[in-house]
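REQUEST ID: PR-0412
SUBMITTED BY: lab tech R.K.
PRIORITY: routine
TASK: structure prediction, single protein chain
INPUT:
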Amino acid sequence: MNLDDLRIFVAVVREGGMAAASRTASLPKSTLSRGVARLEKQLGIRLLQRSPTHIVPTQEGLRLYEKSAHLLQEIEGLLHSVGRASLEPCGALRLSAPRDFEGFLAPVISRYARTYPASAVEVMLSDRFVDLVEEGYDLAIRGGSLPKGDFTLRKWSAVERVFCASPTYLAAQGAPRTPHDLLSHLCITTGEKRVREWPIASAGEVLRIEGHLHANTVNLARTLVLDGRGIAMLPTWLVADDLRQGRLQLVLPQHCPPPAKLWIVYPSGKHMPARVRTFITYLLDEGKSAAGWKVELSSFELS
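STATUS: complete
OUTPUT:
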């Protein structure tokens, strides 16, 4: 059924005739007449009784008017609310991000929620590679391998990383002198898998490290490193204070791993909801101003 024809029929009945409906809808009477005729033909029944001076609905026409007038109002309201999502942030925004980025996301989410209370934010923190489309996520923050398919990638930021250990561990085990010495040390890996690849920027190579201990979050790995359990590759924003205070020491500072690039990933498409578009802007602003992600290594005691 053509909704425009149904709207025309409702307008004609509500206004009591073609002339009044023509003025209200700003449409020619011929257009209104053709619309009603198409609707009657499709339904196979007369909806209006016409006379030279009056138009009144038939019994079937009155039933259709009473039901459809209310339904059209609901449809118009629904279309308005859906269309509103392209103009102002509203509805639920679903975001996937690595579990260790809670601290960086919290201020972004707080500012966004304060500015746009009509939009709820649902965050799933996990290192699992979620399927954005299949699992219904609006966007994700990702590092490492990126999804294949019809996705848009926006560079968000880069996280500097260091190899570090506690003074207690280094006193007992000695400090590695070359990157390959790491293979004979107790190493603590992070992420989903115990065996991890540690990149060596200066040598342009990657070491395959099988963790003596494994933690699925960098916060747990930091605790283990502070306790003297081994060497770990950790983000500088997490261990900067530990390095300044001497609780941890840099290992192989001349061979630091390269920064880990972070990306904002979302399904491609022309008609992005305002809640997603606005939140991406907030994320990009936070990425530019996140000075705490970059730490001057020369201020730390070198091992």
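NOTES: The chain has a mean pLDDT of 83.
REVIEWED BY: pending
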